[in-house]
Every structure is written in C-alpha cells, then in structure tokens.
User: Fold this.
Amino acid sequence: AIPSHIDKKYLGTGPNITHFIPQPNTKDISKEVLDFCFLSCQVSGVLTLLDTMHKYQPKLLKKKKLKVHVAGASIYEMMGLIKWEYLLHRLPDVKELEYSFIGPDLEE
Assistant:
C-alpha cells in the first residue's frame, strides 16, 4: 500500500524509491512471485477484455479484424502499450487489431 505518512513540510527528494517506500524482504519473495505480481497488473485489462468477449460476444473471438474502444481510459492504460498486443497472442484468428483509448485525461 502507498505509505500513509504525511510530511509536515517539504523534505525534498530521496536517493531512490526506498527512501519513500520500504523495500520488501526479498529473501521471502522469489523473482517468480515478483514477476507474477508485475505481469498480472500488466495484463489484467487485456484478460478482462478477453473474458468479456468470451462471455458476451463469443463471435468476436473468430473475427479477422477487431477494433477495441477502451472507454474511460487514463494514463495507466497508455503506459506500456505493448501489453495490449497480448490479446493477439490469445486470439489466433485475429490478423488486424486496432485500439482507441478514450478518456477525459487523455490528449489527442
């Protein structure tokens, strides 16, 4: 969780992130667990989209071309755009995929 401490006055920056966020005891956490945590955050949007298509619009799973509108998108969806390619890895029939990210905080 994000630390809840509030500085009474501006203290400047730190030498690295561990100045603000305590470093976990990595002796108890394997690289595989850390990778899983990172990757699950990265692909959760794509897998939610895939699951929704599977449940409510299964015919989309066999299309050759898809255009996906991500409504309510923010900078989070834009970070690491390569993650959205993962949908192609799960849908072998799709040859062309286009995304449109729409949100009040995004610029054209």
